[in-house]
Amino acid sequence: MASRYFYNSSKFRAGALSAALVLLPAAAHADTLDSGDTAWMITATTLVLFMTIPGLALFYGGLVRVKNVLSVLMQCFAITALMTILWTIVGYTIAFGEGNAFFGSFEYAFLSNIGRDAVSGTIPMILFAMFQLTFAIITPALIVGAFAERMKFSAVLWFTGLWMVLVYAPVCHWVWGGGWLGEMGALDFAGGTVVHINAGVAGLVAAIVLGKRTGYPSTPMMPHSLTLSLVGASMLWVGWFGFNAGSELAADGVAGMALAVTQISAAAATLAWMFIEWIKHGKPSVLGGITGAVAGLVAITPASGFVGPMGAIAIGITAGIVCFYGATTLKRTLGYDDSLDAFGVHGIGGAVGALLTGVFASTGLGGFEDINIGSQVWVQLVSIIATAAYSGTASLILLKGIDRIIGLRVEDDQEITGLDITLHNERGYDF
C-alpha cells in the first residue's frame, strides 16, 4: 500500500503544502525517519490540540453570557472527542487517500495500512495523521462562535460531525491531499482556505439559518469574562506556532520563518485593531486587542511558509483593519447575528490572507516563491470562491436537513434561561 508524504507548496516545493508525493514500500528507504523532525511534530501536534481545548474553549467561553459559558466549553470539548473518532474512521482517508481530484479513496479507513514503522517523509505516518486530526478538530469548533447561545447540543454534534466528513475532509483533499486546487497551484501553507474560509462561511450560513438570538441587537449581550477570553486568546497565539510552523512537517528554516511571521502578523493586527478603536472610540479595548490578534493569526496562516517579515507586517495590518470593519460595520449593516464573529474574523481574515499570499509570496516582495503575482492572485481567488461556495452550499443543506429531522434551535424559554441549565443541568459558577 502506498505511503505518501503530503505537503503543500507552490508546485512541489519541498516542505510546503500542495500535492502528494507517492512513495511505494519498495522504495521505503527513501523515507528516512528523523528524530528531530519527529520530536518537533509531536510538540506541534500537542500545541494545535491545545488551541481547541483549552484555548478556543476559553476564548469563546469568556465571550458569551454567564448563563451559557458551560455550553460553549462543552461544545468544544465534545467536538474534540467526536472529530477524533470520525477522523479515525473515515475523515483521514477522505482527505489523504489517493482518490481523485475531489475525494480521497478509502485505503486508510480506520487508519488501516498505517503501521508503527510507516514513514511519511521524515516523520511517522501515524504522527502525520494525528497532526492533521488536530486541524480537523479545531475547524468545526471555530463554527461554534457563529451560533453560540442558541443551538441544541444534539444539533451541534450532528452538524459538526457531518460537516467535518462531508465538507472539511474533501476541501482538505482538494488542497493538501493531491486534489484539484493543489494541482492548480493554490498556496495554502497551513489552512487559510481549508480551515478559516471553510469554517467562517459555514458559520455565516449557520448564523443566518438559526436567526438572531432573542433580544439581539437591542438587548446588551456583553462578554461575561474578558479575563477568560484573554487567557484563551493567549493560548491560541502560542498554539498557533504549532499550527503554522508545524505545517512544514520538519524542524528547519522554513518552520523557523513560519514561526517568525506568525508572531509578526499577530502583533501588527493587534496594534492595527487597537489604534482603530482608539481613534474611533477614544479608548482601546481588551476585546478589540485579542480579536485583532486572532485576525492577524488567521490571515498569516495560508502565507506563513511563503512570505517574509515585510509581508507579515502588511498582512497583519490589513487583516486588523479589514476584520475590524467586517466584525462591526458589515455585521450591523447586513443584520445577521454572528455571535462571536466567526465569519468576521475567520472567513474574512482567511480570505484576506489567502489573497495577499499571492502577492507577498513573491521574491520581489520579500517572499520565497518565484511566482507571477497576477496569475497567483487569480489562482488564490479561485480557491477562495470554490471553498466558500462549496462550504456555504453544503452547510445550508446540512443545517436544513438537521432542522427538519431534530430541530436546530432551543426553545425560547430555554434560550432565555440559558443553555447551561437547560441543556446540561449545570452552572459555570457557584455564586
Structural commentary:
This protein is mainly alpha-helical and 431 residues long. It has one domain (3-424): Orthogonal Bundle (Ammonium transporter fold). The chain contains 14 helices and four strands. A hairpin with a 2-residue loop joins strand 3 (119-120) and strand 4. The longest helix has 33 residues, at 373-405. The protein is globular, with a radius of gyration of 20 Å. Mean pLDDT is 93; it is low at 1-29.
Topology:
Blueprint: E1 3-6, E2 20-23, H1 35-63, H2 69-96, E3 119-120, E4 123-124, H3 125-147, H4 153-176, H5 180-184, H6 192-210, H7 226-245, H8 253-281, H9 286-300, H10 309-334, H11 342-360, H12 373-405, H13 412-417, H14 419-424
Antiparallel strand pairs: 1-2, 3-4
